Amino acid sequence: MEIVVVMSFALSFSLLIEKRIHIPKPIFHILVLLGVLIGIGFIVSLFSSHELYDVIRDIIHFSKPFLLIFSGFLLLRKINDTSFFIKVVVYVSLLFAVKHLFVLATSTYVRGTIEELRLLAGGGNFIEVIGLLFLYVFYKNPILNITRSTKMIFMAIIAISIFFYFSRTSLLAILILFLSVYGYTILSRKAFEYSIFGVVVLGLLYGYLYTQDLDPDKKGIENFFYKIKNAPAEVFTTPKGYDPNNHKEIFDHWRGYEAMMALRKMEEDQWSYVFGKGFGSLIDLGFKAPIGGEDGLRYIPHFHNGYVYIFFKTGAIGIFFYLLIMYSMYKRGYVFADSDTAKIMNRLISGMGLYFIITTFVITGLYNLGEISVFLTGCFYGLSYKIKENTKIHG
Predict the structure, then answer these.
(1) Residues paired with 299 in a beta bridge
(2) Which stretches are transmembrane (predicted)?
(3) Is residue 146 part of a domain?
């Protein structure tokens, strides 16, 4: 993570000083709000006795979305060929997909559990989702400069790769971003009808899953469906108790358990509900969990539920500013665009706002340590404004 932050800072600084670049208000507002979150956590830490190492680690972690969005935005503003980014994403996602499928095809664990497959070949790759979306959206567009049959082959390879990640967040990203690109997440009667339909389908799916006695230890697709069935309980339900000789109960509700322990820690000081515990604060799990290496960890700085994480570090004020960031992204879908590509980028940004709103519950949203989604969001902003800039020059 530290390497990513340093590289993003270096890229942002070098691009910024090379030539004066105008930063539009929407992206400037997002960067300011992200900076405010960093400021809140840091100022509160000055009135606490947290370890310096833990404070610095949190500063780096909270700086990551700021630097990734900013560097992605600046990078795309410097590229004159607006189709170049789309081509790069498609071919990079294709390479990742081929690599993923090759690893699976040559592995001796192809008949293992889904967890074994995910540990072996990866648990998901967000750029493949964007690559698949670009291939589909620009299917009839000459922007990729490849034949339709080639596009179909590329789409099939990437889609198969995504399927074999068995990733719930990848499936969620596909659903939200495809709906967003076609305007179904913008408030309208049609969007409302699709939402009702989606809720009914989701309700029927979970109604069916809850009638099934799924075994989490089984191999194959049953394990995947168990994870889908258990997803709400894992996030929102806390374990009834903890038996040090049996981790199953607590790990079936792990995200809920982390959040519960964080909120218990905040009960020590009522002001923490407003301003948080500050950077450097740690959660006491109450036992040494088998995470973070062979020795395990009892005190952890980060956890899965992003809303509780932001609340724990920066309080209700931090949650308010975070939601403003999500709203700023979402409303981008309502902005008029002069070209189809710019409109797609705006709707993608809007979809990313919705995606982060939901994934903040499970993988900390903007503050996810491993995803490239935040950097790509900055790229979408940069490309949108670059197209607008080019239109003014040549229009």
Answers:
(1) 284
(2) 26-47, 59-76, 88-110, 117-139, 151-179, 191-209, 307-327, 348-367
(3) yes
pLDDT tens, residue by residue, 76-112:
888 888 889 999 999 999 999 999 999 888 876 555 6
Are 262 and 336 in a shared domain? Answer: no
Q: 284-292 contacts: CB < 8 A, separation 24 or more?
A: 285/257, 285/258, 285/261, 286/242, 286/261, 287/242, 287/244, 290/247
Predicted TM-score (pTM) of the model is 0.87
Q: Give residue-wise pLDDT tens across range 33-77.
A: 999 999 999 999 999 999 999 999 999 999 999 999 999 998 888
Nearest to 378 by CA among 337, 332, 339, 336: 332
| List of E strands, 193-338 | 283-289, 297-300
Q: Which of 352, 349, 318 is nearest to 334 (CA)?
A: 349
Q: Are 357 and 326 in contact (CB under 8 A)?
A: yes
Flag whether pLDDT at 1 surpasses 60.
no
Alpha helices in 79-167 (DSSP H): 82-106, 114-121, 126-137, 148-163
Contacts of 110 (CB under 8 A, 6+ apart): 104, 117
Say how far apart CA 309 and CA 35 lie, in whole Å. 17
211 lies in some domain? no
Does 312 lie in the same domain as 386?
Answer: yes
210 located within any domain: no
How many domains in the chain?
2
Range of the structural domain that residue 245 is part of: 218-273+282-302
Could you tell me if 260 and 346 lie in one domain? no
| C-beta separation of 176 from 358 below 8 A | yes
Query: Residues 362, 254: one domain?
Result: no
Output the six-digit token pair for 202: 């989701």
**Angle subtended at Cα 36 by Cα 186 and Cα 321, rounded to the nearest 5 degrees:** 35
Return the top range by mean pLDDT from 125-134, 181-190, 289-298.
Answer: 125-134
Please tell me whether residues 65 and 176 are part of one structural domain. Answer: yes
What is the mean predicted confidence (pLDDT) over 181-206?
A: 78
pLDDT interval class at 19 (50, 70, 90) = low
Query: What pLDDT is recorded for position 223?
Result: 67
